[in-house]
Amino acid sequence: MISASNVTLAYGKRVLFKDVNIKFIPGNCYGLIGANGAGKSTFLKILSREIEADKGEISAGKGRIAVLKQDQFAFDEETVFNTVIMGHKKLYKVMAEREAIYAKPEFSEEDGIRSAELEADFAEMNGYEVESEAAVLLNGLGIPEEMRGKLMKELEGGDKVRVLLAQALFGNPDVLLLDEPTNHLDLKSISWLEEFLYRFQNTVIVVSHDRHFLNQVCTHIADIDFSRIQVYVGNYDFWYQASQLHLKQRQDDNRKTTDKANELKEFIQRFSSNASKAKQATSRKKLLEKLTIEDMPTSSRKYPYVVFKPERACGDIILEVKGLSKAIDGVQVIKDLDLVVRKGDKIAFVGGNTLAKTTLFQILEGEMEPDAGSFRWGITITHAYFPKENGDYFKNDLNLIEWLGQYAPPAEGESFARGFLGRMLFSGEEATKKTSVLSGGERVRCMLSKVMLAAANVLILDEPTNHLDLESITALNNGLISYSEVILFSSHDHQFVSTVANRIIEITPSGFIDRIMNFDDYLEDAEVTTTREALCNGHAELSL
Prior knowledge:
The chain is of the alpha/beta class and 544 residues long. It has 18 helices and 18 strands.
């Protein structure tokens, strides 16, 4: 168990936590949620004692706390295997000393005594199982055997993150603290991690923007808001329903109390000078004094206004693709793609090759030429593009009002831009921020604003949920569900794909699988599995 007692932390006048008291019980998985800037990662650092709170105590007894490290370069000179084992510092220290003794050319009596002590410690910590345990973790997270002897500095960034996650999971820690563990994981690895955490019997506290992941693994939700942490029993969907119901009840109670107060005030005002009604007026004054309107504190949780309104509906011909092929740096990423997009299609492109999806979108947007094949947009079609990499859109030194003005209707001025930015959570002075200082999430909200202003009847969206908080993802998700026209998109967010898409196109190493069905049905479809195996025969196993 790990607990916080009267924890308070403030940065200047900004209070993140005030007198937080909370216990995290073994056998439970807690999803730590809150708006961007609410202090989720900071609270994990307080629990791990990486930083100290202004006031209060953290108690974890003698239990071992494992943390998903964020520094990808901290273990660059270590092998992948050693990096995983270093998740259990005490065990790794025993291993290193044990190996050093056995490597000596001459073995003294002292060495013999010490090696016996080390062997006992090694066995007690299940040291003889480290290789198999590390292999299981790395395999589950998509790190093949041939990479395990490499130095960490030889790995790509995404693979480093997977190794660091294996490090955190290694050795059955008493408390497991995970900050965005699904970043850089494909759906197959996420599914493996969900199963691992489901079977994990100690305490887990996880921060994630992946709602499906939180629903699958969490037994409790710890919600950071109003400078405190409130624990709810159940997964993310249960928390959302319960918190919305609780908020609505408080608002309804306040409205009823306000209406009653106004009714009493009106009676008192009308009859206080009327002798025959004076007694009743006095009685109502006493009732009015007893009424309490609950103070509703301002939540840090804010939802942007994401609504896509096409200027016109799509015609009969939307998009036709014939024999499209493209190689990047000599590697074939798209081969002989035939595709007809129909009215009402909301197509999710899935598959482990993210480059293939991005390349296809860039070709359709006209940013890249195919090596072979052709495509044709219908004459009624206007398409708006959300790229995965958006840095080129923010290289100028404009403020947000000026930046948005580039994409707004010509007749609209500053007041329109301010109003639009306000709905996207850039209110007041934030609307005059320079684009050069925007965070990743702020850039994404700007790009979504650009797409909304296009009023297009086809949306092309490449990983649009990256960098967004749960509130913004929910707003975008709902906006796309309500959108009446055509969407072509990619995303690693399971719930996002399963609630938006009505057609799935999977890109495999040797071809394409195209099915008109939702994502959850697609994953369970036996025919799809058979087709995928046939397409991937002779290739590395596909990761969705």
